[in-house]
Design brief:
Layout: H1 15-31, E1 34-38, H2 40-47, E2 53-59, H3 62-73, E3 76-80, E4 85-89, E5 95-100, E6 102-105, E7 114-117, H4 120-125, E8 135-137, E9 143-144, H5 149-155, E10 157-158, H6 165-168, H7 171-183, E11 186-187, H8 189-200, H9 209-220, H10 225-234, H11 237-241, H12 249-258, H13 267-276, H14 280-285, H15 290-306, H16 317-324, H17 329-338, H18 342-354, H19 364-369, H20 377-392, H21 397-410
Parallel strand pairs: 2-5, 10-11
Antiparallel strand pairs: 1-2, 1-8, 3-4, 4-5, 6-7, 8-9
Length: about 400
Amino acid sequence: MNMIGENKLTDIIPEGIKTALGHISKSCAYLGFEAFIVGGAVRDMLLGSGITDVDISVVGDVQRLAAELRKRYGYKAIFHPFFGTVTLQTQQAINIDITTARWETYSAPAALPEVFPSNLYDDLRRRDFTINSMAVSLEGFVFIDPFGGREDLKNGILRVLHDNSFADDPTRIMRGIRFEKRYGFKMDNRTEALMRGAIAEGYPARLSSERVLAEMEYMMAEPGLSDMLGRMEEIGLWCTLFGGSVISPLAYQRLGRLNGDPGGRLLFPALVLMEDINDDAFKKAFGRYKTYYEKLETYRSREKALKFPVRERPLEPGMLYRLFWGIAGEILEYLALTADTTQYRENVKTYMKDLVGFKFYINGGDLESLGIKPGPRYRIFLERARVEIVEGNIKDRRGQLEILAAVAKRG
């Protein structure tokens, strides 16, 4: 794999971020701290792929550093006590997260770690793979690679740093799958064996649903999601996490169509999987998408009941109205993107183009003025009238009232 030379790493960093890093370095020197760019930012700089976030590891007190940056340079910083992390707000579109260098211990497989302040070596050794265990010092921009991450990156190899890595944190399995498919990397034999051993022991099943969903959402944001899910199934991880469920060919087809979604929204792959998987652990993990899924189910039930040939031929405006009226915009977009026929997609798009926002001027008060007593018939009359109004493309109140009166007269 082609990589950038160590002496050119700083060329990848935007000028505004370089300025912020310089301020951090000067403040650390004043406080007697050391600071290093660590993790994925170093990996991405070596790959020349640009950086979206910068993680800084400091041998020192990050709150003192944040106070010094605020006093010296006017930076605003947000402290996250749970993570012991400070997010430095810059004028760039890149986050700078500053964390005290630390060591972690795990009381049990898949448990959250106990964290202790430590040195850079320990901070790098606690990470998931060697390719994420490199650093660049802010003072002099010296490249630091104690575990051979650069060579593994060059050779496209994913290698864990110790034998308990996947047992300590099974989310690293999902992370490894992401890196495999994103970069075309491959786990070395030892790492592959350790991964499969952790799955066989059932360690991933001990993860909280929140941690599982967080990793799934990282996957759902990637263009290679289908390949990642296939890998999860192949190694038994999907089965371990979600009760033996199997992803159907139809779901993979829908996910393939979503690769054309320019927004890359998490909601749509989540809906594909929710339509396909009926498992309590899965439903719990994906609970935040439940409201949207219920809206999709409402539509599916309506489509099944109406039996309109939405996949086979263009539907008339009245049929489109009856099928799609009141369906949320996100669900309509989902249907268009995952449609299994061109005609289905065109019907959805026609509705969105011509009928979304259609204005009706009739209501129950108009029926009462026609001498019809309030009751269940109101809803029936109004719905029938609206279908005829849409079919006739009647957009003025007078014309709509005439149709409502005719419907009411017919009874």
